[in-house]
Amino acid sequence: MDIRILEGVFDANERIASENEALFRENGVLAMNLMASPGAGKTSLVSRTLEMLSGKVSIGVIEGDIASSVDAEKIKSYGVPVVQINTGGACHLDAAMIREALGHLDLPSLDLLIIENVGNLVCPAEFNLGEGLRVMILSVAEGHDKPLKYPLMFSQSHVLLVNKIDLLGMSDFDVGTLRETVRRMNPAMVIFEVSCRTGEGLPAWAEWLERMVRERKNQQRM
C-alpha cells in the first residue's frame, strides 16, 4: 500500500511538472532549480547573479524555505519580483507549489526564473518542478566526497557550482578528485569554481547563464 501511495504522489507531481514546463516554454522562460545544502551559498549566488545580469536579463525568483521570509526580503531589495514559499516542514519544493507561485508572477515579462529550493541534498533531487535547468551548489566546507553520498543530486543536475573556493587553502578539499568523481557519474555536468564572497569565477557563470537564457528565447521564436 505504501508503495502505491508513493507512486501516486510522484505521478501527480510529474503531471503538474509537465504543465509547468509547457508554461515556461510557451513564455520563453528558462526556469532554474537551484539546490544545495543549508549554508552552501544558494541565496548568495542568487544575489550575485542578479547583480551581474541586471539590465541584461529579466529575472524573477521563487524562494523556498521551511519557514520565514528572510531570504525573500534580501532578494526583494534587488528590485526583482519574488515569491516566498514556506513548506511548513517539507524538505523540498514540488511542482504544485511552483504552479501556485506562478500565479503571483508575470511570467511573460520574465527571461529567467530562479527557484531556490529548500536546503537539502536528498529530497529536492526527487521532485521535478518543470524546470529547464538543474543547478546545484557544493561548498568547499562540505568536502569533496559528497557525490558519493548523494549520487542522485549529482547525477541529475546539469550544473555544479563549487562555491567558497577562497577557502581551499584552509581545507583538504580536492577539486581534482571532485571533478573526477562527478565526471564518472555525470559526464555532461558543467562545473564552475566560484566564490560568492570574492567574486572569483562568477563572471564565467553569469556569461554562461545569460547564453542559456538567450538560447531559450531563440527556441521560443522558432
Task: Give the secondary structure arrangement, pairings included.
Layout: H1 2-26, E1 30-36, H2 42-53, E2 59-65, H3 70-76, E3 82-86, H4 95-102, E4 112-116, E5 133-139, H5 146-149, H6 151-156, E6 159-163, H7 175-185, E7 190-193, H8 202-221
Parallel strand pairs: 1-4, 1-5, 2-3, 2-4, 5-6, 6-7
How would you describe this protein?
- By secondary structure, the chain is an alpha/beta fold.
- The protein has helices at 2-26, 42-53, 70-76, 95-102, 146-149, 151-156, 175-185, 202-221; strands at 30-36, 59-65, 82-86, 112-116, 133-139, 159-163, 190-193.
- The protein has a seven-stranded parallel sheet with strand order 3-2-4-1-5-6-7, sandwiched between helices.
- α7 (175-185) links the parallel β6 (159-163) and β7 (190-193).
- It is globular.
- The model has no long low-confidence stretch (mean pLDDT 94).
- The number of helices is 8
Using DSSP, what is the number of strands?
Answer: 7
Helix content: 40-55%
End-to-end distance: 46 Å
Low confidence ranges: none
Let me know the CATH homologous superfamily: P-loop containing nucleotide triphosphate hydrolases
Strand portion: 15-25%
Which key features would you list for this structure?
222 residues; alpha/beta; Rossmann fold; 7 strands; 18% strand; globular
